[in-house]
């Protein structure tokens, strides 16, 4: 969120710390993913496909972490899948952040 200009932000970068407030974090993660997705859409620099994939893996991770609370094999499998999806989302987040942090090349004026 910090790489998105303030006018395009759907939330504050500080809101990400709410994910550590147990048990609020289980629901808050969905809101954080949605806010970042809206911010990326408003910013317009991230490709639509890339942004949608990021949001899909973010929401999948949120859902799987809740499912991981179920007892037995379903919870264990959900937890393993949640970690894998989280790793994919985190990798994608890093790529998007580098893309957004890169300077925009200036257009040259031919005289």
TrEMBL record:
Residues passing through the membrane, by range: 61-88
Keyword Transmembrane helix: yes
Alphabetic keyword roster: Membrane, Transmembrane, Transmembrane helix
Protein name: DUF4260 domain-containing protein
Source organism: Sinomonas terricola
